[in-house]
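Revision sheet: structure tokens.
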Amino acid sequence: MSSVVVRHNMSVVNLITSRHRCGKILNELFASGVHHAHISGGRGTLIQDKWYQSLLPMISPELEVIQMVVPDPKVDEVMKLCVQHANLKRSGAGAVYCVPCDDLYAREGFPLWPLDEKERRDEDASTHLNENMTMIQYISQGERTDAICRGAMNVGTHGPIVQYSEGRGLRDRLGWLKITSKPIKEAVTVLVDNVDANLVFAAMTKAGQVQLPGHGLIFSMPVQKAIVNIDSVYSQTRHAASAQQIIKAIDELKGSKEWRAQSEIDMQGGQAAGLDFLTRSTQARVFRNMSRLTVIVDRSKAGEVSRQIQNFGAPGVNIDHAQYHQPENNQDTRKHTEMSSLRIIMNKNLAKALQQRIAEEIEVPLAVYTQPIGQSLFYRTPVEAPAEENVRYYRGQRIKA
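Predicted:
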């Protein structure tokens, strides 16, 4: 039986860049000391700067997401390298952001960043998290992706990043009825300032109709550090500055980002005035004590490991496929293998127990870690409460018999 390695202070750094620049950036990162990276494809979202843009299809430039699991003492260094080599100070160049992990468990044989003598448990980034930004992700079956992207952009976000994943779990248990549920899911991701987080979350929730069964889930995660320079508008005319540059200039003039905050009625879509009775749903619940559990494993083992995790009690699994790149000894060539990331959204305490069981009982090279979730929202099947005896009501209020 292989041993389990525990790393206490790790973070996930994500770099979003254009596909044609990805290879060059990756070579430069490896030459600067980065040990490995997982690369997955995706697409951006641009709307045309026309008065009739709502009638036109959105432009979807090809993007790559480079993901690196990095020790906390190395996070600042790696993010500076990303900014430098991807030229993220240029408008529209991409984004880089970091989300800390809870304890990471890895089976012997799984490649990790080498242990650094600076690593100490008391330097865990998640213990002094600076929540200056928020990542919001909506996972849907795809029919509502366009509406979700437009809903987010209409309230001022950058062009959302869309990636594909494979859904496992409930669909596998439907038998022949699984034809009603698509196996391929689409994950719509945006990075927003905390002052805008509630507004964007509400807009994406409404656009995706998450209160209906089969319409996916939405959740937010605290981002420790980030630089975002992703375009949202495509224009053939020449302007002195883009909308993003104008907003950034106003932030600097105002001295903060509080001026962006909307009124309570605007943010909540009329809830403050009691006008939400047409869209109110008791089947959509907000969950706050949640975590995202991620298992990284060889792609050939992803299906088998997914079934085992579901047997352990996971409610469902989304599988993202990626290429794992690692520099060779001569630094001029790269070795790459196919890897998969299995992601589960579940209760924080249950996720911790499941993480322990995965590390101890699944004997293949893998890494498993959890990350904090701010809030999540998804359809919850209503369950009728058992009938109670000796219960009386007076003017609609429940009283004892």
